[in-house]
Amino acid sequence: MAVYIAFDVETPNRANNRMSAIGISAIKDNRIVANYYSLVNPDTHFDYFNTRLTGIDANKVRNAPNFAELWKEIEPIMSKGILVAHNAVFDMSVLRQCLNYYGIAWKPSADYLCTVQIGRRVLPNMKHNLDVMCDYYGIALDHHQADSDSRACAEILLRYMDSGVDVNSFVKKYRF
């Protein structure tokens, strides 16, 4: 049985190349077995738009670890399974850029799933925004909060699996 690591990142500005928060929800044996959340000091500026969207500003992350410090803690989690995100190309790109910026060598590629891409195939006649999918499935969501978004992503993946979708047929490789 596969292990899935649903994650979501929030970013401090329009460059979308650093994190200001990360949420992680691990799925094993078709249930969520662990949740993780941390603010991240992005070592860069915050745009008003991002702060307004997420509620995270420079003051809130002042004492938070930067990505390099945090990576030591989350790398074992991120390495345990197939990465999953809602609109995965965005979250995977931010992860790659953070690894590159801090000079962290992880692995050349990682298996990943995108719950938006799966949704477009299995539920083609609806929008696949995270809030729309959560309304459809009755999943609680505090949108643009990394812990809530990662848990919602995990719940959506579980709903797909419960309905008989072979999610492993959607696994792709992301090159770092």
Overall outline: globular
What is the makeup of the main sheet?
6 strands, mixed
β-sheet strand percentage: 15-25%
For the secondary structure, the number of strands is: 6
What class would the helix/strand composition place it in? alpha/beta
Describe it:
Helix 6 crosses helix 7. The chain is built from 7 helices and 6 strands. It has one domain (4-175): Ribonuclease H-like superfamily/Ribonuclease H (Nucleotidyltransferase, domain 5, 2-Layer Sandwich). The protein is α/β, with parallel strands linked by helices. The protein is globular, with a radius of gyration of 15 Å.
Would you kindly provide a brief summary of this structure?
This protein has helices spanning 48-54, 58-61, 67-78, 88-101, 115-122, 130-137, 146-162; strands spanning 4-10, 21-28, 31-39, 82-85, 109-114, 172-175. With 176 residues, the protein is an alpha/beta fold.
Helix and strand topology:
Blueprint: E1 4-10, E2 21-28, E3 31-39, H1 48-54, H2 58-61, H3 67-78, E4 82-85, H4 88-101, E5 109-114, H5 115-122, H6 130-137, H7 146-162, E6 172-175
Parallel strand pairs: 1-4, 4-5
Antiparallel strand pairs: 1-2, 2-3, 5-6
Helix pairs in contact: 5-7, 6-7
